[in-house]
Write a structure and sequence with these properties.
It contains 13 helices and 14 strands. It is an alpha/beta fold. The chain has one domain: 3-Layer(aba) Sandwich (UDP-N-acetylmuramoyl-L-alanine:D-glutamate ligase), CATH 3.40.1190.20. The strands form two sheets. Strands 1, 4, 5, 8, 9, 10, 11, 12, 13 and 14 form a ten-stranded mixed β-sheet that branches. It has a four-stranded mixed β-sheet with strand order 3-2-6-7. It is globular and about 50 Å long.
């Protein structure tokens, strides 16, 4: 198996019980997550050696987050310590036509976004792993975060490692005029990337590409090949989601590589917790790509991993390889005895 790191912020997730709102509830449960945390945790469960490159506060809150990472099977030798704060978000679970709501706080003041890594960290990380995962959310933070993500990506690329980039554009983080502000940073990362997670909306709004497609699928099939050719990207993947009137979701995975698309069969399922499902899909693509699996198998595997992530509480995917393989061949299971 491969050695994989992720560069990203560790977030503290504070959620209301059940489907209550912040206005209704006086109780919150906390855990730790983040795109990078979720991806490498899932890959650890698939048998890879995984690391997180991040910065945590040098206080009991940072100690708690570090212990949580280790419990997930993530090695923490690339975690920097310093500063006083950790980024947080409040989660209110949606139901029916009311969507789930995420409210961020303390992002720009967090240790990750204020304390730089020490000299030599990028070389040490790049020399130790085969691939590094990066997230577009980091680009939305501040100049330090943007500088560090690009420094590490360039170092990984220069040493022949694999650069994995998830566009993950968040309008609430970029603010007004965000697409224009984000575009040059996204283009820099795309030029370095070997695997990219994106959809047609990223191409249209963030990269400013034009499409003649009448719907999302036509736009996807027109713009993703153009993006892959323009930036020299070996593989682009993602999902299309539809929320049904009965509160079930319909998910279709796609993968573009070597000039051709592969699509999964649409999966319709009930949702227990949606947050982190995209990271589960990404982990499935990364796992199968590094293993050299057939593209059709890869997109089917990743879609099953994403569906399973909707069935467990919390951001972090918990499925093993065996769980995903079982899910690929059945829609629901009886009690396993």
């Amino acid at each position: 198996m491969s050695r994989i790191a992720a560069f990203g912020e560790v977030m503290m997730r504070l959620e209301t019980p059940g489907f209550s709102t912040l206005v209704q509830s006086s109780n919150l449960a906390y855990s730790f997550s983040g795109t990078g945390v979720n991806v490498v945790s899932a890959l650890s469960r698939f048998g890879h050696e995984t690391y997180l490159a991040s910065t945590l506060p040098d206080n009991p809150l940072g100690d708690a987050a570090l212990a949580y990472l280790r419990k997930l099977g993530i090695q923490t030798s690339f975690v920097n310590r310093g500063g006083r704060y950790i980024g947080m978000y409040f989660l209110e679970h949606g139901f029916g036509i009311r969507p789930s709501k995420v409210t961020y706080t303390d992002r720009l003041g967090s240790s990750f976004n204020t304390v730089p890594h020490v000299e030599g960290d990028w070389e040490r990380i790049s020399a130790s792993v085969d691939a590094v995962h990066f997230c577009g959310i980091t680009l939305a933070m501040n100049e330090l975060a943007r500088t560090q993500i690009k420094q590490l990506a360039r170092e990984v690329k220069s040493r022949g490692g694999m650069v994995i980039f998830d566009c993950n554009y968040r309008p609430s983080l970029w603010g007004e005029g965000g697409y224009v502000a984000a575009a040059p940073h996204y283009r820099e990362m795309l030029e370095l990337a070997d695997i990219v997670f994106m959809n047609e909306k990223d191409a249209i709004f963030t990269l400013g590409m034009q499409s003649r497609g009448a719907d999302r699928m036509e736009q996807l099939q027109e713009l993703i090949p153009q993006t892959a050719k323009q930036y020299g990207i070996g593989l682009i993947a993602g999902t299309h989601r539809l929320v049904n009137g009965d509160n079930t979701h319909k998910l279709t995975g796609y993968l573009y590589t070597e000039g051709a698309f592969c699509f999964s069969q649409p999966a319709t399922f009930s949702v227990y917790d949606r947050v982190g499902a995209g990271d589960a899909y990404a982990s499935g693509i990364i796992h199968t790509r590094l293993r050299g699996d057939d593209p059709q198998y890869a997109v089917d595997y990743a879609t099953a991993a994403a569906v399973l992530a909707h069935t467990v509480h919390g951001d972090t995917p918990m499925a093993t390889e065996a769980d995903v393989v079982k899910a690929m061949s059945r829609t629901a299971g009886d009690v396993e005895r």
